């Protein structure tokens, strides 16, 4: 028997807030978390801005002795997971830990650690590579560390589908619980790519904005957009069966009702129109609703020329032009930047918060309309709207498309 799946806990560390309350306050007020890079000297880089965390204390998530034994991306994941568990109100002593899983992804993993250790090897030789290099660098360690922290002995998976990673994580968690393999899952993603090799690498690909105005750098759907802005952080949700949540009187933030996962099978970096459209339709169809039921789309909206035009066309293809024009759309990357493998999780959380607060967050920094991007992107100022069903889109290099459909809990 298929089981209903709900979200009962959420945690986030983002460029606009280091917990859910701060994150929502930033989204609602349209606060831009993008600024000049402060974590390293970016003077030699063409891109000098990013969405960095502000005032985050690693000791809030990890013991002081362990900070040097984990890459930042794992620390961010632990901070978000801790908040998700606490907000869920779950008594972990009361559950079967063999039925408690973790599906937390990362697009790149410990990139800062990799950069540091390669420099050390180059300067001092391979004998000076740190003993914790591999456990800090490998991409599954956010999931592994979260599982260790909470004694989650069920499935433990790191989905790596580039920028689609954490949406796939939430979708796979949904299916895992829906079909009875696991009862509770911490799902999401974490990323810490703001370093010279991260900024330099994506810059060499000509994917990053080179704007020196932080407020006009991540400008999804604006005609003057010129690339995405790197962000860092983590988002994690606590998911369980509806039966479990109701039995313990948990607050239900939203129900996960659909998931679409497709591949363009076309190009390593450039998205198609058909692939994302099929993923959106798959999520809506699994939810068992008609296309007119979708009130809000949290778009992938990266602020790159091809993505935003193709995603606009994909939304029209999936929903039809008339219906597409009635949907409020926004890209919260305009405020957070693009968190790569963590972006889907924080945008899923943004979508849940939008549903709960009957409020569509804005696409900030929008000034110049683009004839290829002509839908309602909720420019600059958020709007009140009752949202019953919403989808969150995430697209990744390699042609990965992941979409989840969320429903307002009306109990």
Key words describing this protein structure:
single chain; 411 residues; alpha/beta; Peroxisomal Thiolase, Chain A, domain 1; 10-stranded mixed β-sheet; two-stranded antiparallel sheet; 14 helices; 14 strands; 18% strand; globular
Q: What's the quick description here?
A:
The protein is an alpha/beta fold and 411 residues long. Strands 5-4-6-7-1-8-14-13-9-10 form a ten-stranded mixed sheet, with helices on both faces. A two-stranded antiparallel ribbon has the order 2-3. Strands 11-12 form a two-stranded antiparallel ribbon.
Protein topology:
Blueprint lengths: L4 E9 L6 H10 L5 E2 L12 E2 L13 H4 L4 H17 L11 E6 L5 H14 L8 H5 L3 H10 L5 E2 L7 H14 L5 E8 L4 H9 L28 E9 H6 L6 E10 L10 H14 L6 E5 L6 H15 L1 H4 L3 E3 L2 H4 L6 H15 L1 E2 L22 E2 L4 E8 L3 E8 L4
Helix pairs in contact: 3-6, 7-14, 10-11
Description:
The chain is α/β, with parallel strands linked by helices. The protein folds into 2 domains: 5-247, Peroxisomal Thiolase, Chain A, domain 1 (3-Layer(aba) Sandwich), CATH 3.40.47.10; 256-407, 3-Layer(aba) Sandwich (Peroxisomal Thiolase, Chain A, domain 1), CATH 3.40.47.10. 34% of the residues lie in helices and 18% in strands. The protein is built from 14 helices and 14 strands. It has helices at residues 20-29, 64-67, 72-88, 111-124, 133-137, 141-150, 165-178, 196-204, 242-247, 274-287, 305-319, 321-324, 333-336, 343-357; strands at residues 5-13, 35-36, 49-50, 100-105, 156-157, 184-191, 233-241, 254-263, 294-298, 328-330, 359-360, 383-384, 389-396, 400-407. The strands form 3 sheets. A 10-stranded mixed beta sheet has the order 5-4-6-7-1-8-14-13-9-10, with helices on both faces. It has a two-stranded antiparallel sheet with strand order 2-3. Helix 3 (72-88) crosses helix 6 and helix 10 crosses helix 11 (305-319). The two termini are 21 Å apart. The mean pLDDT is 97.
């Amino acid at each position: 028997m298929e089981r209903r799946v709900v979200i009962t806990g959420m945690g986030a560390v983002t460029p606009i807030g280091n917990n859910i309350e701060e994150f929502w306050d930033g989204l609602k007020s349209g606060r831009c978390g993008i600024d000049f890079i402060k974590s390293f000297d970016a003077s030699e880089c063409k891109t000098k801005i990013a969405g960095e965390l502000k005032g985050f204390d690693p000791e809030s998530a990890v013991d002081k002795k362990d900070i040097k034994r984990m890459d930042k991306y794992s620390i961010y994941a632990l901070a978000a997971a801790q908040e998700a568990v606490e907000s869920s109100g779950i008594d972990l002593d009361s559950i079967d830990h063999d039925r408690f899983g973790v599906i937390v992804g990362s697009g790149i993993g410990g990139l800062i650690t990799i950069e540091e250790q390669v420099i050390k090897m180059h300067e001092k030789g391979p004998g000076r590579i740190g003993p914790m290099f591999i456990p800090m660098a490998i991409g599954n360690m956010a999931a592994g560390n979260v599982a260790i922290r909470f004694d989650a002995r069920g499935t433990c998976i790191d989905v790596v589908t580039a920028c689609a990673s954490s949406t796939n994580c939430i979708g796979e968690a949904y299916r895992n619980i829906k079909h009875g393999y696991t009862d509770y899952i911490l799902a999401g993603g974490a990323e810490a790519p703001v370093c010279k090799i991260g900024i330099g690498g994506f810059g060499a690909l000509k994917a990053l904005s080179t704007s020196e105005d932080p407020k006009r750098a991540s400008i999804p759907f604006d005609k003057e957009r010129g690339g995405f802005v790197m962000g860092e952080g983590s988002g994690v949700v606590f998911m369980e069966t509806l039966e479990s949540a109701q039995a313990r009187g948990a607050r239900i933030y939203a129900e996960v009702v659909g998931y679409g996962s497709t591949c363009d099978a076309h190009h390593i970096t450039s998205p198609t129109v058909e692939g994302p459209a099929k993923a959106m339709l798959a999520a809506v169809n699994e939810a068992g609703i008609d296309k007119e039921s979708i009130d809000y789309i949290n778009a992938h909206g990266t602020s790159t020329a091809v993505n935003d035009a193709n995603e606009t066309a994909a939304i029209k293809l999936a929903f039809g032009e008339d219906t597409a024009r009635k949907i409020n759309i926004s890209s919260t990357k305009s405020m957070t930047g693009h968190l790569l493998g963590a972006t889907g999780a924080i945008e899923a959380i943004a979508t849940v918060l939008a549903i709960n607060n009957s409020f569509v967050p804005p696409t900030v920094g929008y000034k110049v309309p683009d004839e290829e991007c002509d839908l309602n992107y909720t420019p600059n100022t958020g709007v009140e709207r009752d949202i019953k069903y919403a989808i969150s889109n995430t697209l990744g290099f390699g042609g990965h498309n992941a979409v989840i459909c969320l429903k307002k809990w009306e109990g």
